[in-house]
């Protein structure tokens, strides 16, 4: 028999318990499950929303959950749609442009502690 997710569980997180924050015009972020070694983040974009080019020491893998994006990693751009994925090596400059209302599920290793402040 399954149980309902409750707040404060170290292994489970109900979406309703994870705040959503605006990080740029047309872009929101929701920090999902994490521990010191990894972090999962839901990022929702309105059409035209931009994930400004940036870099970080974390390895990032991303899954296009909905919509489509132009994704640029180290100067190479590809158009990705729902069901596609990409990986960003440590310190590679990368960014995205949402071509329609869209959503990414990002996983970082290790955890992005600066997201938790």
TrEMBL record:
Pfam families the UniProt entry points to: Cupin_2 (PF07883)
Q: Which residues form the Cupin type-2 domain?
A: 42-108
Mind telling me which InterPro entries this protein's record contains? Bacilysin_H2HPP_isomerase, Cupin_2, KdgF, RmlC-like_jellyroll, RmlC_Cupin_sf
Check the record and name the SUPFAM superfamilies matching this protein. RmlC-like cupins (SSF51182)
Gene3D superfamilies of this UniProt entry? Jelly Rolls (2.60.120.10)
- Name the CDD domains on file: cupin_KdgF
Q: What is this protein called?
A: Cupin domain-containing protein
Highest lineage ranks of the organism? Bacteria, Pseudomonadati, Pseudomonadota, Alphaproteobacteria, Hyphomicrobiales
